[in-house]
Write a structure and sequence with these properties.
alpha/beta; Rossmann fold; 5-stranded parallel β-sheet; 12 helices; globular; binds phosphoric acid mono(formamide)ester
């Protein structure tokens, strides 16, 4: 694909070569993310960050990534802080904000809303999560993390096993990740959820259609015995009709050190898109795993910075100029 000026709305727009291009540029961003080098390649450029739903890492890592490339960030956080609270449309908001920005990142609770916004924008728009639909940059950073973690054990994205656990119906990160897995060779996917919260059938069909081996189960312990990656997710309580309904499922799958050690292989890697729900009634990924070397959740968040820096550089066509505007620290 031609990255320059493109919107990033869905992982479906990527070919395998595009993913590898993003990952190569992300690798090259490492000294800048570690502040070993400083670049001003995006000096004068403005990121418009529009976050209409809560976020910690997506919003802040988009902002930090843009700053690390030398650009400036302007933010609107929460619908009540925007003129959308007065009935302004996505169309008008996009027309206005794209006059103030070089690129826009947006999160919104409605499925398809970011695509509608992008259609009216005069600058590239990156989807930071649209309802239960997609979270393409999270899927890219997840896949980048899986690639790095597998490489540490001499493995590749073309032959590995992953168990995805939790609210697979509403979890946009697992929807996007499954679609990306369809670009790779031979993946065994174990989908672990309550029967009411299974992965959408269309996503499962895509995985099976390209030859991946998919198992659907509601058993946690037997599902993690023979996998390379355990990808835990939160019950997405904000997507349920009521808190009471969400509470039926919170705490259903709890991964802790004892269960992990008893069932998983020593090299199995634990991932989670975060936030994890640390309240006692949920606790899907226990803090007693915090110091476990298999826990990759903070390696994931660090990788998110690299992948988002890479995307900005590619969308704005400066990926080959980063070093020209750089100095050692
Ligand atoms: N993973 C993720 O999207 O986190 P935030 O909701 O904090 O952005």
């Amino acid at each position: 694909m031609d990255f320059i000026g493109a919107n990033i709305l869905s992982v479906s727009q990527f070919e395998r070569a595009d993913i590898e291009r993003v990952f190569d540029v992300a690798d090259a961003m490492t000294p800048y993310a570690k502040r070993e080098k400083v670049t001003r390649v995006l000096e004068g450029a403005i990121l418009g960050n529009m976050f209409m739903e809560p976020s910690t890492r997506t919003r802040l890592s988009f902002g930090a990534a843009f700053n690390l490339l030398g650009g400036t960030v302007r933010e609107t956080v929460g619908i009540t802080a925007s003129a959308m609270a007065k009935g302004e449309s996505l169309y008008d908001t996009a027309r206005v904000l794209s006059g103030y920005s070089d690129v826009i990142c947006m999160r919104h609770p409605q499925e398809g809303s970011v695509a509608e916004f992008a259609a009216a924008s005069r600058v590239p728009v990156v989807n930071g999560g649209d309802g239960a639909n997609e979270h393409p940059t999270q899927a890219l950073l997840d896949l980048y993390t899986i690639r790095k973690e597998l490489a540490a054990h001499g493995r590749t994205l073309d032959d590995f096993r992953i168990a995805m656990i939790g609210d697979l119906k509403h979890g946009r990160t697992v929807h996007s990740l499954c679609k990306l897995l369809c670009l790779f060779g031979k993946v065994q996917v174990v989908l672990v959820s309550p029967p009411e919260l299974t992965m959408p059938e269309g996503v499962v069909e895509k995985l099976r259609a390209i030859g991946h081996d998919v198992t659907v189960t509601d058993q946690l312990e037997t599902s993690i015995t023979d996998v390379d990656i355990v990808y835990s997710t939160r019950i997405q309580e904000e997507r349920f009709a009521s808190q009471e309904e969400a509470n039926l499922y919170r705490g259903r799958f709890r991964l802790n050190r004892e269960i992990f050690t008893r069932n998983a292989q020593p090299n199995t890697v634990i991932m989670h898109p975060l936030p994890r729900d640390s309240r006692a009634e949920a606790n899907e990924l226990d803090t007693d795993l915090n110091e476990h070397p298999s826990l990759a959740i903070f390696r994931q968040t660090d990788n998110g910075l690299l992948v988002r820096m890479a995307l900005f550089a590619l969308l704005l066509g400066v990926e080959n100029q980063v070093d020209m505007y750089a100095r050692e620290v």
